[in-house]
Amino acid sequence: MIRIGANPICWSNDDMIEIGGDIPLEQCLAEAAEIGIEGMELGNKFPKTAPALKAKLAEFGLVFVSGWYSTFLLERDADAEFAAAAEAIALRKGAGAEVLIVCECTRTVHGVKSAPLSARPVLTDAEWAVFLPRMTRFAELVAGAGLTLVYHHHMGTVVQTEAEIDRFMAGTGAAVKLLLDTGHATWGGADPVRLARLYRDRIGHIHTKDVRQDVRARSEAGGWSFLDSVLEGVYTVPGDGTVDYVAVFRELPDYAGWVIIEAEQDPDKAHPKTYVKMGYDNLVRFLDEAGLKRAA
């Protein structure tokens, strides 16, 4: 069964904490619950211990889904990464998560407002040869700790383009699952329908955000940074851009897990509750049209 969740980045940004910084956590959780959201991913305003995190979400009838963890496997081996991740793994597992969301952040530019996306890191063959087996080993260690590693391809990082996603998937083992992000895929030049079809057996988590192609075009023409592009509205909620979600979901007839609304926007320009409600209603319709069953 599929459950619809949300990421608090729809209300408050983690890379630029001043964006939506004035929106209380309680407002975010209350609005999410009212919309029909069942679970939330982690944000900077959330409690820092598993019992407190579970309790806060339970106040609003929500459960914990998971949260982002930055890996640096180009700089340290899998065992060192696993040791560094111990606290993050314990928090997620203790709060009820089943997956660990990871993204390789060595030399990333996605959190640097002054850095154009063209400055992102591109791996050499030698770096790929180091990175891929380390990611597999790290995923196996995470599995031993009781969580499934789901890899988040992301703009501004070493796995951004369709070719890079393909190389990543071909070079990692079965313990590594894919977090399919429709917005990052589309902006990065990949077809999310193709990714869903090719990797359906290894997709362990889904992030849904849509892309405003006019803003994307201006970003690429102007050499904007990731954060400037976000603030200008490159992303929006599912159904408000160009992604064909019904086609994506039809490629995933056996998917069982979370579908997360993760559409970072400037809340002063895109009222969070209005947009998340729009995204939720669209997702329900898209999932129903694709024939996928949601949890009762």
Automatic annotation (TrEMBL):
* The Xylose isomerase-like TIM barrel domain, residue ranges: 29-271
Query: What InterPro entries does the record point to?
Result: IolE/MocC, IolE/XylAMocC-like, Xyl_isomerase-like_sf, Xyl_isomerase-like_TIM-brl
Annotated SUPFAM superfamilies: Xylose isomerase-like
Known Pfam families for this protein?
AP_endonuc_2
Query: Domain of life of the organism in this record?
Result: Bacteria
Query: From the UniProt record, which GO molecular function terms apply?
Result: myo-inosose-2 dehydratase activity
Please indicate if the UniProt record lists rRNA-binding as a keyword.
no
**Presence of keyword Lyase:** yes
Protein name, as recorded: Myo-inosose-2 dehydratase
Which gene specifies this protein's sequence?
Answer: iolE
Q: Which organism is it from?
A: Methylobrevis albus
Question: What keywords appear on the UniProt entry?
Answer: Lyase
Q: What is its EC number?
A: 4.2.1.44
